[in-house]
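Need a sequence for this fold. Nothing fancy.
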């Protein structure tokens, strides 16, 4: 009977460690972010903690100043000044009108200090317009057009 008791305790310990690893590891991989509006609603809770904020890069707002990049994230009618001073180069898709995620901390002066930027160009991910019945498609092999 002692063998079964030791075996059961060993199995319980292994299961407990596996559950702990699963729950502890999932916290760092979450991709939650706040919108510009949600960040504004946080009030004093926004200061000092690490956050991710998403919005659209305002047209004409990107400025390079030395090693820093200043820009504005906008959502609806709300704007957020962002200063990026991270070590990584900005993504190729980071430009006016792009959707961007800034990771960093909010300062009491209303500026978000980002250490990481992710961006995607919305036009790159839009669906291609579909063809209407009877509209010609180019035939790649023969150089002639095929009809639907």
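Here you go.
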């Amino acid at each position: 009977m002692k063998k079964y008791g030791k075996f059961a305790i060993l199995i319980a310990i292994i299961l407990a460690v596996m559950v702990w690893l699963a729950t502890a590891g999932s916290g760092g991989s979450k991709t939650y972010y706040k919108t510009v509006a949600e960040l504004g609603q946080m009030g004093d809770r926004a200061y000092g903690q690490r956050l991710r904020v998403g919005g659209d890069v305002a047209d004409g707002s990107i400025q390079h100043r030395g090693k820093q990049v200043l820009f504005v994230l906008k959502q609806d009618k709300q704007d957020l000044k962002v200063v990026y001073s991270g070590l990584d180069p900005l993504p190729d898709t980071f430009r006016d009108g792009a959707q961007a995620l800034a990771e960093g901390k909010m300062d009491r002066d209303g500026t978000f200090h980002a250490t990481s930027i992710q961006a995607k160009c919305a036009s790159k991910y839009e669906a291609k317009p579909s063809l209407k019945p009877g509209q010609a498609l180019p035939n790649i092999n023969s150089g002639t057009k095929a009809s639907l």
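For context: The chain has two domains: 1-30, 34-125.
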